[in-house]
Structures are given as structure tokens and as C-alpha cells.
Write a structure and sequence with these properties.
It is a single-pass type II membrane protein. InterPro entries: C-type_lectin-like, C-type_lectin-like/link_sf, C-type_lectin/matrix_domain, CTDL_fold. By secondary structure, the protein is of the alpha+beta class. It has a single domain, classed as Mannose-Binding Protein A, Chain A (Roll). Strand 3 and strand 4 form a beta hairpin. The longest helix is centred in the N-terminal third of the chain and has 11 residues.
Length: about 90
């Protein structure tokens, strides 16, 4: 995929997870495609209930649109995944 992915089994809220990602690696993952999503799902431990894994998408209010971190764009990627917007996945260029 051209990226290096990391995850943690430590329970954190989204803000704590992002701070951990930024201080330990670079930032949370921004999923670009169904292919990338499928690849990440294949790497992560299977979770059938919480905690899931945080990713780099957020919204401040319940009725707001989900936006990706970094460029604040809404997602062109609309696939459903096992990722629920809780520990986390980070990415760092390789």
C-alpha cells in the first residue's frame, strides 16, 4: 500500500488517540479507497464489539458531516467498514 500502519490496544477516546498518534507516529489514517480499507481490515484483530479502532475522520456536532483530518474534506470514500468512528490506526509514510 505504500504506507506503514500502526494500532494500539490501549483504550482512548478519539482526542487522546489522535494526540498519541501525532506524538508517536504522524497522524491517524485517512482511508482513501475500498482497497485500502480492505487491507487494513485484513491486518487488524477481528473486533465484533467495542472497542473498535479510531480512524482520522471526525465531526464536532451530531448533525455535521464527517470530515477527514488534515484537509477537512468530506470523504470521497463511502464504503462501510469494520472501522467505527474507537483504540486507533495510524499511518506513516514509508
Amino acid at each position: 500500500m505504500g504506507w506503514m500502519y500502526h494500532y494500539s490496544n490501549t483504550s482512548m477516546n478519539w482526542t487522546q488517540a489522535r494526540q498519541w498518534c501525532q506524538s508517536t507516529y504522524t497522524d491517524m489514517v485517512v482511508i482513501q479507497s475500498q482497497k485500502e480499507n480492505d487491507y487494513l481490515v485484513s491486518l487488524l484483530p477481528n473486533r465484533k464489539q467495542s472497542p473498535y479502532f479510531w480512524i482520522g475522520i471526525t465531526k464536532k456536532q451530531k448533525n455535521e458531516t464527517w470530515t477527514w483530518i488534515g484537509n477537512n474534506s468530506t470523504s470521497p470514500f463511502t464504503g462501510r467498514s469494520t472501522f467505527q468512528p474507537s483504540p486507533m490506526v495510524t499511518n506513516s509514510g514509508s
